[in-house]
Design goal:
The chain is an alpha+beta fold and about 220 residues long. It is built from five helices and 15 strands. It has a six-stranded mixed β-sheet with strand order 2-1-13-6-7-10, with helices on one face. A five-stranded mixed β-sheet has the order 4-15-14-11-12, with no helix packed on it. Strands 3-9 form a two-stranded parallel ribbon. Strand 14 and strand 15 form a beta hairpin.
Length: about 220
């Protein structure tokens, strides 16, 4: 295992590697193709991290920001070209995460063939829970994720429905991007995503493990020259 304190990975981790369309029902609800050949990857910067108790601000250039609840995998030991059979030896723990997505911006990016950076990588786009030690999760493919907005259940799904499970994701990503201690892998979201509004209360959880709550505080300040 690594030498740094993984329980505060968001303070020093260098990157967030995200997996899109890893649940078939979510891909279908947005009328996206379902791929079983290879994962769809994108990145968030460390400035996307948001901790519980901080206001969840929305990007000023979007009018439709969606919640996506996800299991996050925290890397404890880095490496490249990690064999799938050794992948879990590189995992140090987990976190409950939200992949906040500017859906209207993402739709425009897809139409133009542009990267998703504006839709996915803005400040506050990755709220995270406290660190969950690996020992508390015997099998990351047997967890139930859920999210409520103002007390109304919007998302509930099992990690058993991932198209690409955690060991394969660690293996696949490490063949393209060297994984480092403290990196976070977002593993995709189940169906039920929807837009949030200012003053909404978001509560998310992993059954029998952890919960977290955030308040949507409106738009972030716009840039002015």
């Amino acid at each position: 295992m690594g030498s740094r304190n993984l329980s505060c990975f968001w303070e020093w981790g260098r990157k967030i590697v995200c997996v899109g369309r890893n649940y078939a029902e979510h891909a279908r609800e947005l009328e996206n193709p379902v791929s079983t050949s290879e994962p769809l990857l994108f990145l968030k910067p460390p400035s996307a991290y948001l901790r519980e108790g901080s206001p969840l601000r929305l990007p000023h250039y979007s009018r439709s920001v969606h919640h996506e609840v996800e299991l996050g995998v925290v890397v404890a030991r880095g490496g490249s070209h990690i064999p799938q059979g050794e992948a879990m030896d590189h995992v140090g723990g987990y976190a409950l995460c939200l992949d906040m997505t500017a859906r209207d911006v993402q739709d425009e990016c897809k139409k133009k063939g542009h990267p998703w950076t504006l839709a996915k990588a803005f400040d506050c786009s990755c709220p995270v829970s406290d660190f969950i030690p690996k020992g508390r999760v015997p099998d990351p493919q047997r967890l139930t994720l859920w999210l409520k907005v103002n007390g109304q259940l919007r998302q509930r799904g099992s990690t058993s429905h991932m198209i690409f499970p955690v060991p394969f994701l660690v293996h696949y990503i490490s063949r393209i991007i060297r994984l480092e201690e403290g990196d976070l892998i977002l593993t995709g979201t189940p169906a039920g995503v929807s837009a949030v509004q200012e003053h909404d209360e978001l509560q998310a959880g992993i059954d029998d493990l952890i919960t977290m709550q955030f308040t949507v505080a409106g738009n972030s300040p716009s840039y002015s020259q």
